[in-house]
């Protein structure tokens, strides 16, 4: 019986001290499982000597491979590099700081064996995480779920298993600015999730600076919602409605001789044009939204399975 293969993709940025600890934890877990596996570290332009360590580790440990990016491109880009290069029958992505416990891997694989193409993970809300991290994460998921048409579960991270079939679809999307949490939810297929308790970071400190967190949030929202583009249409309609009531009043005051000189023309033009401008901005936003969606070139549909060979062969 040939064993199925698993690639574990781990983007790392200045995680020198975690490389050995994590790979050993993974070896320990796989020792009790029946899979072929390899670990693919993606060095995201680290400046702490990570590439040298990875070169050494991969030389002595034939299950460890690595790629080193030419500079720091960010977590999502590093993840994309790893996913593009992964060759397993399924691929697991996880962080390189031990916060994603290796002990969850058998649970992911179990769900895959049961037929799921995507096994997400959901982090239990952790009191150990900083108040700011918990609040900002909750706010982000609330916002993105409100704005986009599909659900990204709060507490999800890029810690998941993806089958070869689903991964080929994700890689074929080839988006310039990928937001994997959104893309994975968007592609469909059979998905499930396992719940886990995040461990403490093993060494070092978070590589997600405030700036990088904001960038990720902006990327998530702009990749999956065009609503902010045409939101101006709503106040535009409201102001137009209000001005349609206010303008007759202003004209009445003018003809009744109650208005100050200049007030009527000012109020009529300001209220009329501000409503019109906002509405036109919203309309431009709608077209821009269509252009944005076209540029992304996401497929109109994705086929999960079919029996189409019969039609192709004209049986
Ligand atoms: N990471 C990366 N490039 C970056 C920032 C982070 O590859 O520019 C990696 C990092 O080394 C870790 C993972 O992404 O393996 C998640 O980052 P981190 O643990 O610092 O984020 P947090 O858990 O604090 O949200
Ligand atoms: Mg972390």
UniProtKB/TrEMBL annotation:
GO molecular function, one term: glycosyltransferase activity
Annotated localization: Membrane
Key words of the record: Glycosyltransferase, Membrane, Transferase, Transmembrane, Transmembrane helix
Its EC number(s): 2.4.-.-
Regions crossing the membrane: 229-251, 263-288
Matches recorded under InterPro entries: Glyco_trans_2-like, Glycosyltransferase_2, Nucleotide-diphossugar_trans
CDD domains: DPM1_like_bac
Taxonomic placement: Bacteria, Pseudomonadati, Bacteroidota, Chitinophagia, Chitinophagales
Entry protein name: Dolichol-phosphate mannosyltransferase
Domain Glycosyltransferase 2-like, residue spans: 7-168
Membrane-protein topology: Multi-pass membrane protein
Main enzyme class: transferase
SUPFAM superfamilies xrefs: Nucleotide-diphospho-sugar transferases
Pfam family, one: Glycos_transf_2
Listed PANTHER family: PROPHAGE BACTOPRENOL GLUCOSYL TRANSFERASE HOMOLOG, UNDECAPRENYL-PHOSPHATE 4-DEOXY-4-FORMAMIDO-L-ARABINOSE TRANSFERASE-RELATED
């Amino acid at each position: 019986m040939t064993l199925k293969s698993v690639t574990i993709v781990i983007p790392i940025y200045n995680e020198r001290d975690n490389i050995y600890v994590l790979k050993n934890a993974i070896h320990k877990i796989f020792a009790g499982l029946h899979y072929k596996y390899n670990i693919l570290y993606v060095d995201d332009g680290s400046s702490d000597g990570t590439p040298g360590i990875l070169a050494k580790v991969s030389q002595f440990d034939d299950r460890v491979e690595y790629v080193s990016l030419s500079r720091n491109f960010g977590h999502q880009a590093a993840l994309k590099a790893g996913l593009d290069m992964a060759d397993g029958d399924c691929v697991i992505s996880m962080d390189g700081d031990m916060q994603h416990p290796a002990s969850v891997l058998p649970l992911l694989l179990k769900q895959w064996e049961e037929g799921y193409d995507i096994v997400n993970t959901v982090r239990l809300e952790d009191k150990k995480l900083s108040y700011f991290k918990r609040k900002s994460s909750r706010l982000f998921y609330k916002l993105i779920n409100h704005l986009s048409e599909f659900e990204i579960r709060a507490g999800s991270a890029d810690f998941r298993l993806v089958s070869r079939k689903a991964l080929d679809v994700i890689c074929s999307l080839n988006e310039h600015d990928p937001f994997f949490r959104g893309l994975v939810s968007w592609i469909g297929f059979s998905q499930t999730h396992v719940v886990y308790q995040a461990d403490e970071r093993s060494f070092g400190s978070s590589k997600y600076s405030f700036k990088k967190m904001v960038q990720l949030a902006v990327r998530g929202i702009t990749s999956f919602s065009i609503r902010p583009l045409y939101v101006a249409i709503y106040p535009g309609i409201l102001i137009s409605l209000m001005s349609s009531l206010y303008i007759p009043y202003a004209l009445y005051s003018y003809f009744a001789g109650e208005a100050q000189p200049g007030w009527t023309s000012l109020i009529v033009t300001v209220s009329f044009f501000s409503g019109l401008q906002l509405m036109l901005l919203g309309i431009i936003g709608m077209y821009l939204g269509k252009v944005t969606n076209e540029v992304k070139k996401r497929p109109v549909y994705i086929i999960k399975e079919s029996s189409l060979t019969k039609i192709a062969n004209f049986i």
